[in-house]
Amino acid sequence: MEYKDQQLTEEKVFKDPVHRYIHVRDRVIWDLIAAPEFQRLRRVKQLGTTNLTFHGAEHSRFNHSLGVYEIVRRIMMNFQDRVNWDNEDRLLCLCAALLHDLGHGPFSHSFEKVFKLDHEKFTQRIILEETTVNDILNKVSPNFAQKVADVIAKTYPDKLVVSLISSQIDADRMDYLQRDAYFTGVSYGHFDMERILRVMRPMDDQVVIKSTGMHAVEDYIMSRYQMYWQVYFHPVTRSAEVILSKIFQRAKYLYEDDSYTFKLKPTHFISFFSGGVDLQDYLKIDEMIVYYYFQLWQEENDEILADLCERFINRRLFKYVEYNPDPQINAGMELYQLFNDAGINPDYYLVVDSSSDLPYDFYRPGEEEERLPIHLLMPDGGLKELSRHSDIVESISGKKRTDHKLYFPKDRIQEIEDETLKQRIIDILYG
Amino acid sequence: MEYKDQQLTEEKVFKDPVHRYIHVRDRVIWDLIAAPEFQRLRRVKQLGTTNLTFHGAEHSRFNHSLGVYEIVRRIMMNFQDRVNWDNEDRLLCLCAALLHDLGHGPFSHSFEKVFKLDHEKFTQRIILEETTVNDILNKVSPNFAQKVADVIAKTYPDKLVVSLISSQIDADRMDYLQRDAYFTGVSYGHFDMERILRVMRPMDDQVVIKSTGMHAVEDYIMSRYQMYWQVYFHPVTRSAEVILSKIFQRAKYLYEDDSYTFKLKPTHFISFFSGGVDLQDYLKIDEMIVYYYFQLWQEENDEILADLCERFINRRLFKYVEYNPDPQINAGMELYQLFNDAGINPDYYLVVDSSSDLPYDFYRPGEEEERLPIHLLMPDGGLKELSRHSDIVESISGKKRTDHKLYFPKDRIQEIEDETLKQRIIDILYG
Amino acid sequence: MEYKDQQLTEEKVFKDPVHRYIHVRDRVIWDLIAAPEFQRLRRVKQLGTTNLTFHGAEHSRFNHSLGVYEIVRRIMMNFQDRVNWDNEDRLLCLCAALLHDLGHGPFSHSFEKVFKLDHEKFTQRIILEETTVNDILNKVSPNFAQKVADVIAKTYPDKLVVSLISSQIDADRMDYLQRDAYFTGVSYGHFDMERILRVMRPMDDQVVIKSTGMHAVEDYIMSRYQMYWQVYFHPVTRSAEVILSKIFQRAKYLYEDDSYTFKLKPTHFISFFSGGVDLQDYLKIDEMIVYYYFQLWQEENDEILADLCERFINRRLFKYVEYNPDPQINAGMELYQLFNDAGINPDYYLVVDSSSDLPYDFYRPGEEEERLPIHLLMPDGGLKELSRHSDIVESISGKKRTDHKLYFPKDRIQEIEDETLKQRIIDILYG
Amino acid sequence: MEYKDQQLTEEKVFKDPVHRYIHVRDRVIWDLIAAPEFQRLRRVKQLGTTNLTFHGAEHSRFNHSLGVYEIVRRIMMNFQDRVNWDNEDRLLCLCAALLHDLGHGPFSHSFEKVFKLDHEKFTQRIILEETTVNDILNKVSPNFAQKVADVIAKTYPDKLVVSLISSQIDADRMDYLQRDAYFTGVSYGHFDMERILRVMRPMDDQVVIKSTGMHAVEDYIMSRYQMYWQVYFHPVTRSAEVILSKIFQRAKYLYEDDSYTFKLKPTHFISFFSGGVDLQDYLKIDEMIVYYYFQLWQEENDEILADLCERFINRRLFKYVEYNPDPQINAGMELYQLFNDAGINPDYYLVVDSSSDLPYDFYRPGEEEERLPIHLLMPDGGLKELSRHSDIVESISGKKRTDHKLYFPKDRIQEIEDETLKQRIIDILYG
């Protein structure tokens, strides 16, 4: 029997707290899960530094990837009488779901920003270059790896397939909202996925929702909104992210400074510092490795690097105040100067962080992140864009909400000896 | 106000998936949680290698320690009208609960076995020697650190206090059963803790249970039984543990072998290899560090060490068969020889692992792990040992169940070229 | 000891699926629960005919009343350090919570509409006239019954007390949303009540919410919105309500028609038909009694009454179409005539039902149901009305949504023999 | 298309709190659910008087019947590749599951005992005699109704079909344990049904369980054990049952007493009193009707009937003490006499109630309730009886536990004026 049609002699299951069980029948899927590049996702947390705010949030991207696979598997079962897909099409959806986050590095957000990387490019490379994952996909059919990569890159011609894992109501989002809610323990993030799966209908180039299921979708949109502001953009988590970014930035700076010598050569980071990251370097770095360096760097001679690492490891985070960039720009400039005067390097210790989310959007071609809007399938067979039918969604549709905060080490300010300087800083911050 | 009586201006809460919220009012507790030695528990998983079997089980000992604290806090609230404890007594219970696992190292079980360490001794040392935790406890009262250490060591004179965190139905067990069930996602591990807390009554030297709550306790005992055999002793988890032990054993062996030079000097491990572990060495090692070395050791020259590390990192675990030591001893000896013949070092690749659990025990003085039995408080005011009143508990009481398995790399056996040898091995293993 | 200060020797608990346990310590509360007028609430369903749509929704008003009591009890525990209430004040809140729904009759909505009754008036009467409940309240203090009645009637001077059980975020709503979600099994209706209770703060004349808890309140408002449209206004439930009203209306009509004689004299209904309901009549009727009559009336000589009762008992409900009163008024008038022509009495078999809900409202004095808006307590100590701070709430605030449906027996239409007439009716209905 | 093969144009679902959704595709099932005899089950509580102990337990047999149907539906989906059943076989299983409790009358237990009825006989009659249900089943095939009746009566030749709804681990038990736990709110009753369904395997004449699923089955057996003693045999529930039986007994006695005339003729009960119950009489009585009579009978002239009814309606139940029939027989006889002396009719006011449960049984042919034991399917393909493989099950296997309690109205005893008599009674009861 061809590799792509091989079934396990007995269905395998993974016990999963969110979906109860994750079911695997296809040998291809089983082999992909066992591949080292996929196992590596166990060492990358789904929510980066969120566990410093919500101590339950230790779950890995391995978790989430299995979850997205399982949701797509269930959608496909519901679709089987409604679409004309052969076994390779089916596998394509499942593999794309399973592998969509394969290129995530440690603490993706900060890591990518400082080193100017893009995890989506690495997902492509892991799928297409010389890896165990690529070997497995090649055994399915000659251009199968490319197809999987195209689906993940959203360039695959069949947009229905693409929409399963990237639209405004895709398997990716449905998994992470529920999973992140479960592990953090918050009461948001719950919606009736079983109902949504039942009302999903495949159309030419997208998945649409039967209008009878609109309220479950409203609930999903609201869950997403709440999770963004309550969990993902939690100010304490962002404080840890700020420190993380500053550690990477400082380490890179020191590496580029010929006069500085690391006590321990930062072998794993060198290609990231110098900009020539090859795939093997990338696959070798994970959050365990990063933590190792941070622990060692606590003892580096550079005070800033050592201090930031010690803060991150021991969770001595920055405090924050609300910050409104426009009116407060002068205050910001003065603070920068005052920090300098106080000997607290403002490039590392005075940081504005902005978060913004667009909870749901109707279609505006040409804009960044132009995800298709959600369409309802009306009883008369027509389609209607969600926000035109739902008051709640209409009310938050297209409205980008942005939040700015100014982060700084309050302890350092309290230690300033010049009382006038100290008081002036405090007045600006808490005025 | 004295340090021990200081309250936070506003109660702080941690969102916890198991207990919903963990409440902190005392400054002492708040400071202890922020101490580096306590934060370190974030980098030690509660269940070691179990996440390789149950992918949700990524939760840390930090999680669990907060949970035990919270349960004791709730018990104390229920007890406040029934015991005559002053504020220091109350803090003593809370601190002992919070800190009881402070000395756990990475992958405790295997780590301690190979390096002949005892995490309980390190818990004592962290509390009593020069640490941030010790500084905080000293501020409560001069001998407070010693008291906390004594409660955890079970040598504290007030046995009622001791029994809160170590008896057959203590806060420690109640937390981990529920927490491990939650994160693994298994359906065992649930029992009505709220009811148990309501029927707990403080007696002279122990906590007893009002007999009306007996069924909730039965449920707890059964949960424990199921969790042991379904989760804690899961054969796949034990396979990972076996490999872990063998990695530590091999690394130590190579370190002691003067002819071998590590590519990377195993700095963090040296004191463990040589046996002179001081507290600072111990506090520096955590699971992040261990993973870092395992990843590097995949590229060591020693084939055994490199292979075992690669297996652990990529989850290419050993397979197993049931093994009954007594009748099968000869088969075992023959296998050992056959593995040698096949060039598969049996000291590392043929491992018997035994697990055993005593689900509940009545009191047998002088025996190992002599925990007090659970006593029911009868309507007439008398006490009755649980197994005398409950059929179910009686049926499993004092019965130690042991399970032996033989672990080996099936892939290596399949690669043996000498067909006769290979067949003989397979016959013995699966015959 | 005075009656009002008497505590039960041992706290009593009721196992409750929503709040886990309901705790009773006060003798007054224990006695009120045992009173026949309170036990009667076991025979009145919380959601009337909703169980014909959601089969789990069989829960009684007894359930809900205990739940509201429990929530108020927990709020009071949180408030105890923040308000200066004596024991009688505390009991006043608990009693008002427990008894607030005491006057509900069977299938309140339809029953009250047809017979022009007001359950709130009966709540007052049960508390103030000669009942066991009144006897108990009188033992607390001479004017205690009146105080309880005033709190429920919202005329009590201390508005803080009133707001606990009737505001836009009161114990009543918090209980029924969660309880109705639990018993119907829908996934809406969940919000983090524990968090809301923690951020409630007593102010002079209302309970306000610390602004840090705003998102939990948003979730609550959304839950309410979803429960209204998904559960409370479910079109199938409303179909059963329509039939119910028509049964009451027809029975009253027949009673007033001297030429008609009931096979069984409708003893329990006579005072309702004739308008002179005294308290004893009212207390004797419950849903068991109503069902008894409906079953008997299936065999009445009057075809309409018998048919409507048979439909209700056997759940052969009316079908419905959307109906927009303004543009469709002519269609409505024609339908009325056509039904008459077809021999289907439109007064009973062609019914417009309208539902409308105002999910949240800022304060507009003088309007019906003028509940206080929800106020947030800002970090600076000021108050801010919720919809000014929350985008989501702002978006649905003050917007009344109304839904009109036209109900009719589809089976009867299908049986019309005159094909032209039948087709014309179908065209108008489904056009 | 033949009736039996007709599918609904769109799958219908019922929202169910326990199984989330109940799915219906077959027209036959849809029609059966709409039949008046099935709708009648809405008016019979699943747990009789248990709601007087656990106020959430208001759920109906309609609920449970849908649940059993849903479980069998899921089992059949898992079995479809493993058994050779045609569509009629499939429908047979589903119909038998749905209808298995069709003959339950109001408060079955007491009702049947007093009137010497057997609900199983009425289930047979409703299926086989002139009813809507029978009409529907006849349309499937000529002998289909008989087949359904045979499956429910356990006389159907294919024992595999029978075992789905009556064995020691059948759909009936799996539904009621979970459902009763859900509605009472107790923490027992939970087990991993999804896992059990996955490890069920059809064999020649029974469903067996793959041995890898043994622990889930242990959990199920323990849940059953706990539910029996914590919920089903709760002494307060039994107190209500005792009163219920005595009401029926007294009413029958009065009916047979020619000198007594009921104020209201007990029309619905007459055939039950006189022993000639026909099917139409039986179908007309439900718990609503019974409650109607109890409320009226509170005003009967017979003091015993009026008192017992008032107690039941207002939940003024009997108290109880433990009672051991053998040693206490003399005490019992003395009490009987003393009650007589005190003017408290012991035939109605002094009642021994015994409950006993056999949590699991291996096979003992010829004994009452001889349900097949549970067999495990071992890895070698052999079968092994559960209790031989599971320590826990072995420990409770075949052990019948019986509990006797003596019920009486404590209030009446306290009102006895003869102090010596009163004290003697109290001494015997509480001595």
Q: Can you describe what's shown?
A:
4 copies of one chain form a homotetramer. Chain A is of the alpha+beta class and 431 residues long. The first copy, chain A, has a domain at 3-185: Hypothetical protein af1432 (Orthogonal Bundle). Helices cover 53% and strands 11% of the residues of chain A. Chain A contains 22 helices and 9 strands. Chain A has helices at residues 27-34, 36-39, 61-79, 87-99, 108-115, 119-128, 132-140, 144-153, 159-165, 171-184, 193-199, 214-232, 235-256, 270-274, 279-284, 287-297, 303-314, 325-342, 346-349, 391-396, 410-414, 419-430, and strands spanning 7-16, 20-26, 200-202, 207-210, 319-322, 351-357, 375-377, 383-385, 401-408. Chain A has a 4-stranded mixed sheet. A 3-stranded antiparallel sheet of chain A has the order 5-9-6. Chain A has a two-stranded antiparallel sheet with strand order 1-2. In chain A, helix 5 (108-115) packs parallel to helix 13 (235-256). Chain A is globular and about 75 Å long. The first copy, chain A, starts with 6 loop residues before the first strand and ends with a helix. The model of chain A has no long low-confidence stretch (mean pLDDT 93). Chains in contact: A-B, A-C, A-D, B-C, B-D, C-D. The interface between A and B is large, with 39 and 37 residues. Chains A, B, C, D: One of its GO terms (molecular function) is dGTPase activity. Chains A, B, C, D: Residues 61-177 form the HD domain. Chains A, B, C, D: Pfam families: HD (PF01966), HD_assoc_2 (PF19276). Chains A, B, C, D: InterPro entries: dGTPase-like (IPR050135), HD/PDEase_dom (IPR003607), HD_assoc_2 (IPR045509), HD_domain (IPR006674).
